[in-house]
Fold:
Amino acid sequence: LAPCGSSAVLVAMAGLPGSGKSTVAEELARALGIPVVSVDPLESAILRAGIDADQPTGLAAYLVAETIADAVLRSGQGVIIDAVNAVAPARDQWVLLG
Structure:
């Protein structure tokens, strides 16, 4: 949880697949009245668009999520990132965005 700008916050979920991140993110989003940006549906959309599965679709999804989150934060609203964030570079991108 990081304050961004005035009153906007960036919440980056982290944890193994199936650990409940999405459930917690949705409940927190309802409580705070802010949107959730989830990486999984973004990656699914990239694959549906015809990008080969052997391409770095996970990285692409994280970059799309970052772009969306940046736009939301710039509008003055907070945002929750729902992603595994298993490696330091993934977590660092949210710190740098905040």
